[in-house]
Amino acid sequence: MAKRSELATKSELRPATTTSEPSEISAFLSEAKRIQPSRGLTEGRLIFALDATMSRQQTWDAACLLQGEMFEAASRAGGLSVQLAYFRGHDEARSSRWVSDASGLKKLMSGIACHGGLTQIGRVLDHAVKASSEQHVAALVYVGDAMEENVDALCDKAGQLGMRNTKAFMFLEGQDPAAKRAFSEIARLTGGTMLPFDRDSASELRALLGAVAIYAAGGRPALEAAGTAAARRLLADMRG
């Protein structure tokens, strides 16, 4: 288990309140017009979020090995600052400090074991909205294989993330139909994309993570300049 000083308490990922009153809708639209997303001056910011429930242990281990590719790819486009977020067990969801090197993120990830529990994607989205409200977050990478929440509530949160120009790249392992629909809609509402993979496609996952990191570090121009197959795949699906 990572040190408590390195990981935020679950209260920092508490769900936001959703509303539907006409006056609150008007306020929401006014906020959308007011928000002016801005990029960091030196490096891009990316939230790397993973489902750490029991079924995910093998994929978590693979992510520990592959995450270094994000920093290596992003270094050519201006650098990257990454925050780890995850959920597991009963009502446990946490986020790390921001780190700017692969060894720091690997250290955070290596001490975390997967525990059985239900998905808490909504809390991840709430956290991403809050983080991007404080300082722009270019991308949210989410890796999971299931969705056990209210999809409309998730879409509301994704819309708030899209307002802040934070694109969600939703990596789906397997073929769960509910997860596929939810991941695709979350990605669409943020201008990102849903990316299917399986446990035998480590090289593909590595390339796609690298392409997302290039986008987070340098924006669309950097992704276009990369010219890789993974970059072209992202560009084909991304909006804006």
Concise summary:
The protein is of the alpha/beta class. The chain is built from nine helices and six strands, in the order H-E-H-H-E-E-H-H-E-H-E-H-E-H-H. 48% of the residues lie in helices and 18% in strands.
What does this protein structure show overall?
The protein has 240 residues and is α/β, with parallel strands linked by helices. It has nine helices and six strands. It starts with 21 loop residues before the first helix and ends with a helix. The N terminus is likely disordered.
Write the layout of secondary structure elements.
Elements: H1 22-34, E1 44-51, H2 57-66, H3 68-75, E2 80-88, E3 92-99, H4 102-110, H5 121-134, E4 139-144, H6 151-163, E5 167-173, H7 177-190, E6 193-197, H8 202-226, H9 229-237
Parallel strand pairs: 1-2, 1-4, 4-5, 5-6
Antiparallel strand pairs: 2-3
